[in-house]
Design goal:
Structural class: mainly alpha
Number of helices: 5
Helix content: 25-40%
Strand content: 5-15%
């Protein structure tokens, strides 16, 4: 039987009368699309990835995974008072502004968005 570590943590924190805060690293550093978002310029990385046009789709999959995980955290554990985000930038660029593809407020499902998220995960975020 698997344990729900997040659920146990949230329950213990609330039982102690504290607010609930979670740490979330939105990027899986081993996704090739993290290092080569458009599939045209793969930057140095520890896994030896090289430029590949398929990485653009890989970046979209990575982004969709993040939205899926965040939706789970904010819907299955009641009120979450704080989420501490780590890694919300493109590591190879070094600036939050360079990761606009990842956040794109109001454009999660826009057909012109190169990395739009599935409707199920972006519901309510386009307001």
């Amino acid at each position: 039987m698997q344990k729900d570590f997040v659920g146990q943590y949230v329950t213990a924190v609330r039982d102690a009368g504290l607010k609930v805060g979670l740490y979330f690293s939105p990027l899986n550093w081993r996704y090739p699309g993290y290092y080569d978002v458009r599939g045209t310029n793969c930057l140095p990385n520890a896994w030896g990835y090289t430029t590949d046009p398929a990485h653009k789709e890989n970046a979209r999959i990575m982004k969709n995974e993040v939205y899926q995980q965040v939706k789970e955290l904010v819907t299955q554990y009641g009120k979450i008072d704080d989420i501490w985000w780590d890694g919300g930038w493109l590591g190879q660029q070094g600036s939050d502004a360079d990761a606009a593809f990842f956040w794109e407020p109001g454009k999660f499902r826009d057909m012109a968005n190169e990395w739009r998220c599935r409707h199920h995960y972006a519901r309510g975020l386009d307001r």
